Amino acid sequence: MEQINSQDNQMQIEEENSSQKINYYHNHDTNQKPDSLEGYMHNHRSQYCKMCKRTSKDIGTNHNNFNLETCFDTKNIKEESKGYERNQDYYYDSYSHFNIHEDMLKDKVRTKAYMKSILDNKNLFEGKIVLDIGCGTGILSIFAAKAGAKHVYGVDNANIIFHANTIIKNNNLADKITLIQGKMEEVELPVEKVDIIISEWMGYFLLYESMLDCVLDARDKYLAPDGLMFPNKATMFISSFCNDEIYNQRFDFWDKVYGVDMSCMKQWVYKEPLVDQADRGTINGDFVKLIEFDLETVKKNDLDFVADYTLKIRRDDYVQGVIIWWDVYFNYCKIPIKLSTSPFASETHWKQTMFFIENEDIPVIKGDTLSGKVAVKKCTKNPRDLDIKIQFKLENREIDFDKSYVYKMN
Ligand SMILES: C[S@@+](CC[C@H](N)C(=O)[O-])C[C@H]1O[C@@H](n2cnc3c(N)ncnc32)[C@H](O)[C@@H]1O
User: Fold this and answer.
1) Is 135 touching ligand 1 by the criterion CB < 6 Å?
2) Is residue 214 within 8 Å of 88, Cβ to Cβ?
3) What is the number of the ligand 1 atom nearest to the C-alpha of 134?
4) Whether the CB of 49 sits within 6 Å of ligand 1
5) Helices 139-146/108-119 angle, 10° precision
6) 134 C-alpha vs ligand 1 centroid, how far in Å?
7) What is the pTM of this model?
8) Facing residues of 340 across strands?
9) Ligand 1: which residue has its CA nearest to atom 13?
10) Residues 374, 290: contact at Cβ < 8 Å?
11) 272 and 298 Cβ atoms separated by less than 8 Å
């Protein structure tokens, strides 16, 4: 086990604290919600109040830097990644257990979207060669074979593929489906080109686990020029939220744990986005498109990106952070099918991803504009993890807030 050098750690924390602004809890009372802006300005968590003559135009040295090459190169990230290096095999080990596949199969929103897009569109599959990337239990390969595919190649590196083999035999589809164990980026298919690629590659925050990379490599190598991707488009959305219940459970919890002050943990907890199903009532902004990927043309490099967002606040409230979710689309279907992970649609196992503003909630008025940038980059130490930087910019007649935070999904 790696030993943590507590002296280094302490120095790191001291350096960080010295860059923090004073007086984070500015007469705050989370239970008191504003009816209007009048008279509540000295009763909020934010120190960035024009009335108090304190504004925020940044926090550390790296604030306005959204250059993907350098914006994550901070001491925070170096510190955070300590001890997080993992063997890549852990990923396939997790997919070798049947319970993760059981959870995915039981996600009806997910599995039915694929089932309908394949079985209700036999005209697209009849006589076609299909590649199923990351076939797991073989469910999508079986749908494609049942839809009349000439032959299906299912590839998976996890040991679940041995169970898929039995499932396929037991369903009398062994002559229609060939399974290949290995990493998609390393296997050689026995055919030069395929007509359709099906894959359920999406992770939390769409891109976590970075499975899309191997799908894009396989697309470039194997998909026929007029071939189809299932799904063929993915879109990420962003909105703002205020959820005091989660806030208390996740952050205020650390103030007193069985009588022990563990509040030093909070600064680290903030850096981890929360994957959870949002109560739709906690979303207080319009939701807007953050980025869209055309899966037939997008390049691997485009998956590290910086995108701008601007959204209107829908009610007088506080903003505690932003929430991000995604939809994927099967647009070749007779009736186009959307698989949505929106908090306004039926729940899926992907839920949504929430990014909290550290130690702040910004008082907002209906009609205010929240804007900023979101930078996303694969972590250099483990490309399945993501470094994410988000800027929060909001100015109304009372508040002038402009800060950026770095998060890590691992
Ligand atoms: C999200 S699961 C989907 C399983 C199945 N297609 C389904 O819909 O139930 C993704 C699968 O892809 C496999 N996988 C991920 N990356 C892979 C790669 N580069 N090569 C081969 N298999 C991969 C994992 O082992 C896992 O079984």
Assistant:
1) yes
2) no
3) 12
4) no
5) 30
6) 3
7) 0.85
8) 327
9) 134
10) yes
11) no
Rounded Cα gap, residues 111 and 106, in angstroms: 8
The answer to whether the CB of 206 falls within 8 A of the CB of 234 is yes
Model ipTM? 0.99
Active-site residue set: 200, 209
Residue with the smallest CA separation from ligand 1 atom 14 is 134
User: Using one digit for the tens of pLDDT, what is the confidence trace for 363-382?
Assistant: 999 999 999 999 999 998 88
What residue's CA is closest to ligand 1, atom 11?
134
pLDDT tens-place string over residues 139-163: 999 999 999 999 999 999 999 999 9
Pairwise CA distance, residues 24 & 358, whole Å: 10
How many other CB atoms are found less than 10 A from the CB of residue 225? 5
What is the C-alpha to C-alpha distance for residues 266 and 271, in angstroms, rounded to an integer? 9
Please name the residue ranges forming H helices in 107-241. Answer: 108-119, 122-125, 139-146, 160-170, 212-222
CA of 91 to the centre of ligand 1 (A): 10
Distance from C-alpha of 83 to C-alpha of 388, rounded to nearest angstrom: 19
What is the C-alpha to C-alpha distance for residues 398 and 395, in angstroms, rounded to an integer?
A: 8
Is ligand 1 within 6 A of the CB of residue 204?
no
